[in-house]
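hey so u asked for the seq, here:
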Amino acid sequence: MKFKNPIEFLKSKKSLRVFIEKQTQAIENSGKALIFTVVGSIILMFAAALAIFFTNVQGEEKVMVPDVVGKNIYTGLFELEQKELYGKIQFRDSETGGDEGKIIAQDPVEGSIVKAYRRITLTVSRGATLDNLPDYTGSNYNDTVNKIELHYAGEVPLIKIKTPIYLTSEKNAGTIIAQYPEPDTAIIDPVEVQFIVSAGNEVHQVTVPEVEGKSISQLLELMKTSKVVFDFTNTYKHEKKFKASCENAGKKLDPYSRVKAELSFKIKEDADKTTSGIFSFNLPEYPFPVPVKLDCLDPEGIETTVIDFTHPGKSITIPYEVKKGSTLSLTVNGEMLKKEVVQ
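ran it, structure tokens below
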């Protein structure tokens, strides 16, 4: 850069010096701010570390473990929660009966000082080991279910309870008046128990379902759920498709009343791979409905259940549609009573 005279040159040098001084001052100010920031951060980190240290030294609140041995499992769990403790349940058979559902041991023991929110292991009795099915008749249904679920708890419970059947009875409502299998049945493999339960002395009628337009599989489902005994007959009309009809459809009747129903099966042809008809048998009359099952073993050796339901006895009729050459087996109350090969 060229200057016209010495005065301009001197002014230029003075401006440059002022500029340099300002920049230097700005850098010094920024450095001080940076130092303050770093020092402040260190102080905050130190304070946080002290807080964490003293928190860990102090630890969680400590409580005394209460004595829950001998108490009902629900009472024991409640008392633990009152102390901000939680229970870890494990079951064990006992040598004597009558203590089902009671706590027989705890770990840690009563009086131990532990941190809050710790889990306390509770050993709960499942009662004495049973090899045979007890007699539950006369017991309350809900109490019995709770006892069975407690005693036979596990991934594969030895006793499974079917949906109960309620019947009018002079017994108090909820009282078990019959059971299948019967008492003293050996418990080897998992067994399904059917309870007949009193509904009190008030008669609760059932509605006769409509069967018109239903398929055979739908009729079988109605037999399981409707509490109506269908007396099926074949009209031999040889329809082009299956038809069904019954009397009193939509009317209310006493449970397990008998209802006449007519079935018309389609014309059989040689090319058909399946066959259909009515499986029939005469049973004795039972005081209460008993478990009935019709199984099918097809020509390939595959076994299936056609229907599993309850029946009061005397004449029994069951519609079926299975592969030709299948063997149908009727089991009543655990006893196989009839086999028949159908073509």
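The domain at 206-342 is CATH 2.60.40 (Immunoglobulin-like). The mean pLDDT is 83.
lmk if thats what u needed
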